[in-house]
Write the structure tokens for this entry.
Amino acid sequence: MPNAAKPRGGPRSWTAILAAPVGRAEFLGWCVLAAAVLVLRLFALGGPAMENDSYQYLSVAANFAKGHPASTSIVHFDSERSHGQIPAPMTTFPSGYPAAVAAFASAGLPPETAAVAVSAAAVLLLLGLYRLAARRLELGGLGTRFLFLWTFANAEVLTFGTFILTEALFTLLATGAVLLLAAGTADRPEADGAWPPLLAAGALIGLAYWVRYAGLFLYIAAVAYLGFLLLRGRRRAALRGAAAMLVATGIIALGLLRNVLQVGDWKGGNEKVVHHALSGVLVDFVAAIVRLFSGNGLSAGVLLPDLLLGAGLVLLAGIAFGGRAAWKPRRAALLAAALCFIGLYCAAMIHMGQASVITFGIRMFFPLLPSCLLVLALLVTQAQERLAPARQGLFTAGLLLASAAYVGLNVRGLLRQHPEPAPHLVARAALQQEVGPGRTLEAWIGEHVRPDEVIVATQGQATAYALHRPTLSLVSLSYSKQRWDEAAVKAAMRGYHATYLLLYAGERPELFQSPFLEALQAGTCPSWLAPAAATRDVRVYRAEFD
């Protein structure tokens, strides 16, 4: 007797529901959910997160509005100090992110709100990229929902989406470039419509360089991917991609030329060389990658979420790559482009960790997260398509368990976070101490220092933001070649027409690296400096030049 046909219109299984395409209403729901999570994160933090680099970006954004583009009023690094003026052209960092902040602020937003809006918008726009990628790659509902969930359940996404830093914007541009480069080279050479995505990819690679100099690594990865296509016999696709890369080359060349004209160095003045042991850098690299996926939620011992996540990913890769089933051209192109980016970017960052002063950690590798998740989504789709229908439910259940473990790890990581107060809050607390009955140091500075007068200070970046005044920072040897002996401090104060010098108490490297500053902190000063005010944590000296 033949099998009876299954009745139509009956209830679908949960496996079928998860595998169904993501409709417009559900996509909007994911967008609203992601925005709500970011807003809740901001409320929990009490506002956008900031660190010393944030103050530089806000200063450059403010100078854009004042008609001094790509300039900073916080002279902290050697390249900016070489100009001997404030505001000084900023070349230590590119100016793309501050330019975006200035554009948002031009709509009437406060600078801090505009800055965090750029970061949050960049994170939210990843959803749009995912949706476009899912349609082109035929990921299906399971792979698409996997992308959405694993992105917005990630602790680092929530962190950098609410931070005044370049990470979120750079990540968006890099991910878009990888997707567009793969889209423009996936089909046969005679296929129509390849030029627009390739030209757009070139533009995004160039813009990524203007947000972070690490955009050069993205450029190199794109060239390596095109070389891979050439080796695979995809000559026309590789040459077409190379032609489109001229757009990126031109945009990047403008930045390199500006750096050479401003400071005589294509790197923008980032030329201090250090030497860190490869073993230590590799340990930090592994820690950063683990944190990228766990949000620092891994425990000292091995718990069930850790095991589920690891076992699930290994099983997923085994199913996806096992057997002889061929990858579809579009999926294979994205896999190759993403792996080129991930591999070359990691190698370049490890080298930078050995030889430069960058703060080597999770910030350096966050831009890889969407590309890694896209690769995992491809594996999900490949695995699902290779399984017999009878095993689809078991596979989906395993993926849900791995996802639950992933979410649990990242939630645990968020709960573990106990960030130190932002540097400007520490500086502001010190400046609120009294120099006399009912008179704070901040008020005293307001009475004695003109708003446009340069202040010289340790913790200069935080002080500049807290006081909203142009500041020359006495930076430590960790980021500078300058040794702050008496002659150097005197020459700097004279050159910048600065009258007041602020020294903060504490175990600061710029103090113990300079016997002169240490003596000042102890109260011993030369004849050209006179004590002007003091609190428990800050000493202020007034320069009296002949």
Notes: The two ends are 111 Å apart (CA to CA). The beta strands are 71-72, 74-75, 88-89, 434-436, 439-440, 455-457, 471-473, 500-504, 529-534, 538-543. Confidence is low (pLDDT under 50) at residues 1-11.
